[in-house]
Amino acid sequence: MKADKFPTVVESALTNGGKRTVIDSDLATGAAAPSHYHTDFTEEFTLVSGSMTVWTAEDLDEANFKPLELEVGKPVSVPPNTLHKFLVNEPSRVHCVMTPGTIGFERMILIMRGTAEDGVYKQFSSPESDSGATFYSVLGDLTNTLYVGNAKARLEALIAAKGSEVEAVKQELIAKYATDEHLKKAAGL
């Protein structure tokens, strides 16, 4: 996913007994997420401003994607096990509620912000490079993001070849940017 700015956690699952994670994102024209699904939470997208298209397929088949142009102020829910992707058509602000909350998603945001502040995010931002594929694998694991098609095949091959290295990178990123203490501090606890 590419974005103008990194998402901001508006409400942490740490502050509401795990009921939800709420994030706001400012997304650039062309920002996109490849086809994926989650098994453990519902995502509810509300367009605050701009233009964004979300495609969904309840049967996890990309051939059956149905596009939906988001309307400002009207929430759209994507239940667990629903294949989806999105494309931002013009600069947009999106409010997203994940139910139940997902600490993994919150960790991912801290990692994205931390690597950007350290000046290393760019080397990770392309899933086409080895370091980028590793980064995407780590972020996917943290956020319960399951890919399909080419992205799935590439990440499965990476895990088969370098699974222990990917896990080591994940643990390093968490230790540096997204420990439980980092999460508590970000949540104001």
From TrEMBL:
Cross-referenced Gene3D superfamilies: Jelly Rolls
Superkingdom of origin organism: Eukaryota
Protein name: Uncharacterized protein
Origin species: Fonsecaea multimorphosa CBS 102226
